[in-house]
Amino acid sequence: MVAGMTPTTVKAGFVSAVLEAGYHVELAGGGHYSPAALRAKVAEIQGKISPGVGLTLPSLYINPRPFSIQRPLLQEMHREGLPIEGFCVAAGIPTTEKAAEIINGLKSVGIRHVAFKPGSVDGIRQVVNIAVANPDFAIIMQWTGGRAGGHHSYEDFHQPILATYSSIRRHDNIALVAGSGFGSSDDTWPNLTGDLSKQFGLEPIPFDGFLFASRVMVAKEAHTSPSVKDLIVAAAGVDDSQWEGTYVKDTGGIITVRSELGEPIHKVNNRALRLWKEYDDTVFKLPREKRGSWLQEHRAEVIQRLNADYFKPWFPAKKDGRVVEDLGDLTYEETVLRLVRLMYVTHEDRWLDLSLRNLTGDWLRRVEERFAGVNGSGPKASALQSYSSLDKPSVFVTSFFEKYPLAKEQLLAHEDKSYFLNIAQRSGQKPAPFIPILDNNFEVWFKKVQFLRMVFERISTHSFIIGFSLGIGGYRSCLRPGPSARCHSSGPRRSASFNQKGRTY
Predict the structure, then answer these.
(1) From its phi and psi, is residue 10 left (phi > 0), alpha (psi between -120 and 50) or beta?
(2) Which ranges constitute the DSSP H helices of 310-384?
(3) Helices within 134-183 (DSSP H only)
């Protein structure tokens, strides 16, 4: 199977390719910021797959808000006849009582199975308890240990399974799936037969299946940009005995940082991640209420580093490109031009996401409210009758500020600065791909929307950097393959089907 991972299994083309090849795949829930976005994606996939093929959706249990939305939505979509067959509870194991509530809800609409991803011996035992309490429902236990790509535990891959295998196998409703570090017949076959345990002097302990994630980030169907695929392939990776080095240093091209959820996560070591690691060890170690003063003390340096090394640039910049230190130093026109510059992909004639187009529209409406009555000419029809006028923003923005010329000169009022910050971080839309302020909330601005620049690309004037809107690419992107699986990403153009069949068996 292919495990859910943002952004690779967010894309309909990739997910449908895996399903049509005959394999199980999880449609990543993290890339869908609203019920409408998830529904649209399921409908798109449904149009690309054969009748009778079903989808599984993972959702982060550690992140209660999206989890509370996605789980009932999944049941609702299944009830409507959409091809939903499974649910994966990721990043956390619920109590037996809470798990029973989840499972009963899934059973009530006919969803066939639930998956859990334990990260420790205690987590494994809790999944076993859940299986005991729900003997008539299929449970997939996905075990990866600490060497997995993305979020991971601190555990060795082998020891926790050796300690719990007999209790797992007492229950027929548990399917045991191994993940992390697999990519060839040499490492999968001994785990499928169970012979790998012989090195520990034990009887065979076979797994029922395998999950792949890092391995398929470079598949032909993956929407990862070519430059990023090449960077992943170029990272050396390490064998199973060395991956723990990622906690303190570059190990096979991979380092461990702390995610926006406060959990360890593996990333490719590049300029952006070295900055992330540096801030994990400095400003993000401080109590939240003390971060603002640290950022003010290092303000010029932080802004320079964001623009030089990070995938989320500093937002305040003048029309001529000069960087300024505060949002209040911009005119109203300059804020709009900056939004378009950072969120509209000119060479592809599209916004990064429709919700970011609407964010720009909401800000334009605020600007219009500010200036529409300046000349005392009475009520006026809004210049922005429909947000579809922003589908090609250049012409509209020019005409808009011809109608409101004072907006080209007036700096932002304090209340409008606050309004801008509020709409830039509101829920229900893609997180803004920029940092507009240095305050106690800096870690959220810094770590949200990690993956956009893995997917979109644009040739830069700098020959070694490729990106989507600012010439930002692999060297400043956020890539999270596992340190052991990285060894198997030998070519960035193989199909998802080949990655699972040709390389493995």
Answers:
(1) alpha
(2) 332-343, 354-371
(3) 158-168
| pLDDT band of 405, cuts 50, 70, 90 | very high
Torsion of CA 32, 33, 34, 39, to 10 degrees: -10
Query: Is the pLDDT reported for residue 28 higher than 60?
Result: yes
Global model pTM greater than 0.90: no
Altogether, the residues listed in the chain come to a count of 505
For residues 84 and 111, is the Cβ–Cβ distance under 8 A?
yes
Sign of the CA dihedral with 28 first, then 32, 34, and 37 last: negative
Taking 60 as the threshold, does the pLDDT of residue 2 lie above it?
yes
The H or E element that residue 86 is part of is: strand 84-90
List residues bridging with 350 in a β-sheet.
345
Give residue 353's region: left, alpha or beta (phi > 0; psi -120 to 50): beta
DSSP per-residue letters across 380-429: ---S-S-GGGGSSHHHHHHHHHHH-GGGGTPBPPHHHHHHHHHHHT-SSS
Mean pLDDT of 440-450: 83
